């Protein structure tokens, strides 16, 4: 295909505005898939995507369109997620695109995530085609939606806004025409040395790492000797191909095109998203500017559960990390849960999706500890050549007597919400120690910029935001810096034995309230035994909250009767023995125990 007839584009939209349905119509009207093959949300093929009704993973598909001007065009559609936790996936897709379709639901109008994704697209200098969807719906307000779109950007004032129904296919043909008319062709040099961007990857047990690539210059052929400019690996291309949307091998990929390459590399750490691919014999001089790495916002521990072995979990996590470059992990050891991994996520929903993908795709069951933020701990007597300790696991938090001061990671949170929810959103931010930086009013939407500690948004902040705004607000976060905080570690003891996997770090002023809530919840989630077991919350070596987990059956020593002296002596002997054996706990904790920390703010 001639370079002038290639178009690379993405579709960006708020959740449920019809992005995946429009992708289906484009594939249908370009005969990329037959009606027999077509199903709803064809590109959302993962189980978690179908279960939650959201796009999680970006995917690409090549379409050939016979235009009204008599020419054939190659349309490379790169699908994008809509949820705020997957903004990094959106940015990767946009980096491989030259334009974007901005899709807005006529029944809901411009929503928060519409604005957030538009900002991402403009950062990549993409050409924007605004489109109004669901015009066939009885509740559609096309005129109001059009006015909202025009108010987003000055250049939208005079632009033609297409009005379609992705469900019925009405006017989708106009979108197909607008793509080649408005989105520019790729700017590449077919005769130059190979230069290709790796914008995604996945792992295959037989073929090794399969990388999604966008060619900038040159030609990519099977069996070429290639190298990665950042990673340094040299390998022979096993095969190259395109997505239709299934993988289809081809002889070669040319400048401007999007496809995949089978590397044959089995070392998962060798291929990184954002790397530049070139030939080993005649490499390009300048690498493509590297992606800014995804900044993990929350951390949690993953440990094998049930019949899952540590080795099986390790293999599954390493393969999943290749497929999701925003997911990070490092091995760790817990006294209570043995060997596992400390994992970094973009948010709580991202954590949930990773859990479900491990279960559904790799058949691995994991026990997940409570999420936490990152802290820099400065010691009274610092280690040589180490200014501070970076703490992502509360169990590693030093003893309070050794600490000079602590700083916590802060983010700039940009919240876009309809006007009527402004007061509720500001109240929510104040409750989570937020500091307002800016407020911008844009027609019916308000954009609030806050400085927030990561620990305050790690648990239920986004869910609370969705709840008070009925799902109409968006949260876009960007790492700022570390700032001084007054925090303490709550250590949980069960039957006098410390359980390091339950440790949490909280603001000092909240410690007493959280400790009492936590031990109360643990009373009903810790597995019972034949004798009562104390659950204590310790802060700086002092017990600030305690409950007793009731025994499986009544105990004469604790039921108020004074007649059974022998029973009471037996209980005292058991307590004495427990205290002597409290170095290591032999209690097997179910996931419900860790969920008690996650749901600490829910009513009892």
TrEMBL record:
Q: Which residues cross the membrane?
A: none
Gene Ontology MF terms in the entry = GTP binding; GTPase activity; ribosome binding; translation elongation factor activity
Output this protein's name.
Elongation factor 4
Principal place of residence? membrane
Per the record, membrane topology reads: Peripheral membrane protein
The source organism is Lactobacillus kimbladii
Residue intervals of the Tr-type G domain: 4-187
Task: Provide the reaction this enzyme catalyses.
Answer: GTP + H2O = GDP + phosphate + H(+)
Q: Which residues bind GTP?
A: 16-21, 133-136
Q: What keywords does the record list, in alphabetical order? A: Cell membrane, Elongation factor, GTP-binding, Hydrolase, Membrane, Nucleotide-binding, Protein biosynthesis
Q: Which GO terms describe its cellular component?
A: plasma membrane
Q: Which family does it belong to?
A: Belongs to the TRAFAC class translation factor GTPase superfamily. Classic translation factor GTPase family. LepA subfamily.
Q: Tell me, what's a Pfam family for it?
A: LepA_C
Localization (cell): Cell membrane
| EC number from the UniProt entry | 3.6.5.n1
Q: What does this protein do?
A: Required for accurate and efficient protein synthesis under certain stress conditions. May act as a fidelity factor of the translation reaction, by catalyzing a one-codon backward translocation of tRNAs on improperly translocated ribosomes. Back-translocation proceeds from a post-translocation (POST) complex to a pre-translocation (PRE) complex, thus giving elongation factor G a second chance to translocate the tRNAs correctly. Binds to ribosomes in a GTP-dependent manner.
**Lineage of origin:** Bacteria, Bacillati, Bacillota, Bacilli, Lactobacillales
GO term, biological process aspect, one:
positive regulation of translation
